[in-house]
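Risk mitigation, structural track. In case the binding assays with phosphoenolpyruvate fail to produce interpretable data, a predicted complex structure has been prepared as a fallback.
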Amino acid sequence: MSVAGLLIGTSTKMNLTSSEAERYLGTLRQLVEDVVDCDLFVLPPFTSIWVAREQLAGSNVAWGAQDVHPDEAGAHTGDVSAAMLADLGCRYVEVGHAERRRDYGESDALIAAKTKAVLRHRMIPILCVGEPTEGDSEAAVRFVLRQLGGSLAGISGADRSRLVVAYEPVWAIGAGARPAHPDRVAAVHAGIHAWLRSPDGGGAGARVIYGGSVDPSTAGTLLARAGVDGLFVGRAALDPAHFAAIARAGQEHARLGPIGSRMAS
Ligand code: PEP
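Fallback model:
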């Protein structure tokens, strides 16, 4: 697996029972076995992480979780700690998805605490940010930088560099939505990369991936834009053939050159 190449992944959200996940992951593993030039991941629900470990161990697809509790252990009924996820071999943990901010009122401060827990256990946080409505891209950059500043409070520069930031405009994700225009994605990614490289951001080297209604027909165009270090896929990836097609688009673009040469200025 590459160290910091393009990153293509999916969260299956609250889909697939463990039996269905077993079939899905078994099929996916075969379909993407030749995609070796970019990093791949799947985030199943907590109930199927053990299935991912069984199905994906020794493959080129990493697995992880869709959420985590910030505390190490204790009286938190229904929650799951970072230690538990690390013990299951998780490489990535998503924090701050728009649906959790919406459904559970998650604040930037809580997301920062979750991010720290993930980092403490040497896993990679996938920190989701995104503006709620489609204004202009300058307003979007201002919005996501505010979210990033809040969600990274108290996290050191070295740790920030290990992050994955997922730019997921809220209006572009989920049923009935359409992907953000590649120009807008490039502009917002450039803003995020510039901030990460600044003294305030302090996270040069962090990857910034785009999520929001990506499918096999849009993946190549999005990946071709400077500063787009990968894709985070929802609905389309529930079909393993579609995930594989998107991963193949990643492979093609990864072969165009190292990530530094694709960096937004
Ligand atoms: C998401 O919700 O993170 C997402 C990327 O979903 P979709 O691709 O279905 O818009």
